[in-house]
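As a warm-up, study this chain.
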Amino acid sequence: MGLKSGLENNGPFSVYAFNDPQEALAAFEANFYDLLLLDVRMPKMNGFQLYRHLKKIDDSPNVCFITAYETYYEELKKDFPTLAVNCFIKKPIEIDDLIRRIIEELES
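Now compare it with the structure written out below.
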C-alpha cells in the first residue's frame, strides 16, 4: 500500500503526493495545506531545500520531516535557526503510527 492511499484509506486526510520535489513546488498553493510531510532525501532537492522554497510561499503549515537516516536536526537548525520543528519521523513506520503522529502534529 502506498503512503498516499494508506493515509487516505485509514485516516481523515486528503493527501497530495509528489515524487518530484520540483513538481511539488510548482503545484504548491498558499493557505491550502495543514501539514507538509517532506522526505529528507529526494532527487534534485532535499526536503530542507524544498521546505525553504515552500516557506517563501506560505509559512503557516506544520511540517514533519521523514527519513530513513539519522535525524538531521542540527542541519535544520542551521538553516532555520528560529524554526521550532519537533516532527522528525523515522522510516520505516507503520501507517497507523504515522497517522497518530500526523494527528498529534495537527492538534498541537
